[in-house]
Specification:
The complex is a heterodimer.
Chain A (H helix, E strand, L loop, with lengths): L5 H4 L6 H13 L4 E2 L8 E5 L20 E2 L6 E21 L1 E9 L8 E7 L8 E6 L5 E12 L5 E13 L3
Antiparallel strand pairs in A: 1-9, 2-4, 3-9, 4-7, 4-8, 4-9, 5-6, 5-8
Chain B lengths: L2 E9 L6 H9 L15 E9 L6 E9 L6 H7 L5 E7 L3 H5 L1 H9 L9 E6 L11 H11 L2 E4 L9 E7 L10 E5 L4 E8 L1
Parallel strand pairs in B: 1-3, 1-4, 4-5, 5-6
Antiparallel strand pairs in B: 2-3, 7-9, 8-9
The chains are: A mainly beta, B alpha/beta.
Chain lengths: 173, 195
């Protein structure tokens, strides 16, 4: 019989360090910011799972205690809109139970013409978040990112935070 | 209000009543199909079942699968990442019961590393004179495999099963049986109860 209690499976995870260091970077180099924060203008414009207790905005609120959860079956996806052209240098995804993650990006004004960017098989972690770091080289230009969770280690997966370190290249009119 | 989705594999030997069972689920017990139809590959039955006392529901994607060996290879692709399993056998066929272990193994190989909760359903209990698989025998095997089990006759209107969902805090009904999987908020339990 499989019965999991909320408390044993979903331990709240506190992860202060990256947020602090990110803030420090922001102060040293004024132009480098976390592009994926809602306070920086980022927005989740599509998510295939909807649970009002764990909405997609939780991924970009800068709070590592809140998350977006899938509500059953895979693949699942969400699209982040930056509302400007950005150049991403480093992308960090903090999640739980994600197995195969594909990331596509678009440089269009509208969320169309996505091209395959990154595909990763994540490591299964027990009791702590998956912390997947992606370094972009010269290929980090985007206006939209589409994250596809193709498979997971459990029946549900969750994403706690998406952060993209980089800079805004231009605003579109 | 959350709408959860779950992929439920309906598996078992040919002609044990998988499609009849799927149609009973689809029609809430109203429709019993009298003629045999051979299922090629998979027939998909989508059924939304509410979770009582909540605004939540589960959209069940029931993969009514072919029992014939001919389609076995096809099923390997279609069965990818199942959430719950419903194994069916015919109480008048010893072979359909013994093959359940083969079906179970095939289904579990599609969910490596994750739990695959399931139920074992013995069908055709109306054929009392021809019964060869005893209830105790099925229960013992199901227990060893971590499956819940019950018997039914899809033919008889008074013993038709229906899918009932319950929250984990509630006790499963006596004759019901449990299909469950986990969601961050709580454990959602699905019960296939024989009314």
């Amino acid at each position: 019989m499989y019965r999991y209690s909320f408390s044993s499976r979903f331990v709240p995870i506190y992860w202060f360090v990256p947020t602090r260091s990110r803030r420090r970077v922001k102060h040293l180099k004024m132009r480098k910011v976390d592009l994926c924060l809602s306070t920086e203008g980022a927005e989740v414009i599509l998510a295939t799972s909807s649970d009002e207790k764990h909405p997609p905005e939780n991924m970009i609120d800068g709070n590592l205690e809140t998350f977006w959860t899938t509500t059953g079956m895979f693949p699942q996806e969400f699209i982040v809109c930056f509302h400007k052209h950005v150049r991403i240098e480093r992308l960090v995804i903090q999640s739980y139970f994600v197995r195969t993650l594909r990331i596509e990006k678009s440089t269009s004004k509208e969320p169309v013409d996505f091209e395959q960017w990154i595909e990763r098989d994540l490591v299964h972690t027990e009791g702590q978040l998956q912390n997947e770091e992606i370094m972009a080289h010269d290929d980090g230009h985007a206006t939209y990112l589409r994250f596809i969770i193709a498979s997971a280690f459990d029946h549900f997966a969750s994403v706690y935070s998406i952060s993209a370190e980089g800079m805004a290249v231009s605003h579109y009119s | 209000m959350v709408k959860l989705a779950a992929k439920c594999i309906l598996a078992g030997d040919p002609a044990v009543g998988k499609t009849a069972l799927a149609q009973i689920f689809r029609s809430d017990g109203a429709h019993f199909q009298k003629n045999y139809t051979l299922t090629a590959g998979v027939d998909l039955v989508v059924k939304t079942v509410p979770i009582p006392d909540t605004g939540d529901s589960v959209e069940l994607f029931i993969f009514d699968s072919a029992g014939k060996e001919l389609f076995s290879e096809m099923l390997d692709k279609l069965w990818e990442s199942p959430n719950v399993l419903c194994l069916v056998y015919d109480v008048t066929s010893e072979q359909s019961f013994s093959n359940c272990s083969k079906w179970l193994e095939k289904a579990r190989s599609q969910a490596p590393g994750t739990s695959l909760p399931g139920v074992l359903v013995g069908n055709k209990t109306d054929l009392t004179g021809r019964r060869v698989v005893e209830t105790a025998q099925a229960q013992a095997w199901a227990l060893g495999q971590g499956l819940e089990c019950f018997e039914t006759s899809v033919l008889r209107a008074d013993s038709r099963p229906q899918i009932v969902l319950q929250q984990s805090e509630q006790e499963p009904s006596q004759r019901g049986t449990v299909l469950c999987y986990w969601h961050p908020q709580c454990t959602h339990v699905m019960i296939l109860a024989v009314q």
